[in-house]
Design goal:
about 260 residues, mainly alpha, about 75% helix
């Protein structure tokens, strides 16, 4: 029986797989460790959100608009537009496909279509507007919201792997890797990784209980609805679906925070 990779290897594999930072130069985990990257996706969010939040926080005093553009750009560079690529494929597949086979075929196509372009444009514009509005109220509050929203949304998106099967065969996967469902201890750790930044946000900003409820419930409900929609259409998830769910649930947090402000 093959020994399961240790937690260090699994975490390191998550940082290699989900960012474009050269972690692989320091250590290359075994191939089996990459099956567990979604378990530590929220932990990777600690890094990507910190970089994005710091960019916004330190540039905002000079020009808020440039700070917002720089913050969005830096995260795209750090992640290699991995999630944005998934969002574009998601819109193309579910917007242009009417059958399970057609949806999966479109999502696997490397070319971007009309639905994908429009989806990305609307997403980036909405994200930018929300960050700009929050930064006008306070750059510290905007930065803390980013640090909270990124890992929490990744924790929600990772539930898709736990809730449904992979929609393709392993050899058909674009990443050539199928995520495995987390065992109970790893699942609890994933939840903790997603909730710790939320707790930090509540402690430092002190929002009203109603605000906390909305900031948690709205993305959670949206994630559940997206999962139901995806399962109905293709009877399983793909990596593109994971990326799309993450970005859309995160965006729902920013929209909610903007209205609460």
């Amino acid at each position: 029986m093959q020994k399961s990779p240790n937690i260090f290897s699994r975490i390191w594999a998550a940082f290699i797989f989900l960012t474009r930072l050269p972690f692989w130069r320091l250590y290359q985990p075994p191939k089996e460790a990459y099956e567990s990257v979604t378990e530590h996706w929220p932990l990777v969010g600690w890094l990507t959100s910190a970089i994005m939040a710091a960019t916004l926080y330190f540039i905002a005093p000079y020009n808020i608009l440039i700070a917002v553009v720089a913050a969005i750009t830096i995260r795209i560079l750090v992640t290699g537009a991995l999630h944005e690529d998934g969002l574009a494929d998601f819109f193309d597949g579910f917007g242009g496909g009417h059958t399970r086979e057609k949806i999966l075929s479109i999502m696997k196509d490397s070319h971007i279509g009309t639905f994908g372009v429009l989806g990305l444009v609307i997403y980036i514009l909405t994200l930018g507007c929300c960050l700009y509005s929050m930064a006008q109220v306070g750059r510290g509050l905007a930065a803390m919201t980013i640090i909270m929203a990124d890992p929490f949304s990744k924790m929600l998106a990772a539930q898709t792997v736990m809730a449904m099967p992979y929609a393709r065969k392993e050899e058909e996967s674009k990443a050539k890797n199928i995520y495995r469902r987390a065992k109970f201890p790893q699942y609890i750790l994933m939840i903790i990784e997603g909730l710790v930044p939320l707790g930090l946000f509540i402690w430092l900003t002190g929002p009203e209980p109603e605000s906390i409820l909305l900031l948690v419930a709205i993305p959670a409900v949206l994630c559940a609805l997206l999962n139901l929609f995806i399962y109905k259409k293709i009877k399983g998830y793909t990596g593109d679906c994971n990326g799309a769910i993450f970005l859309l649930t995160e965006l729902s947090i920013y929209i909610t925070a903007t209205f609460l402000l």
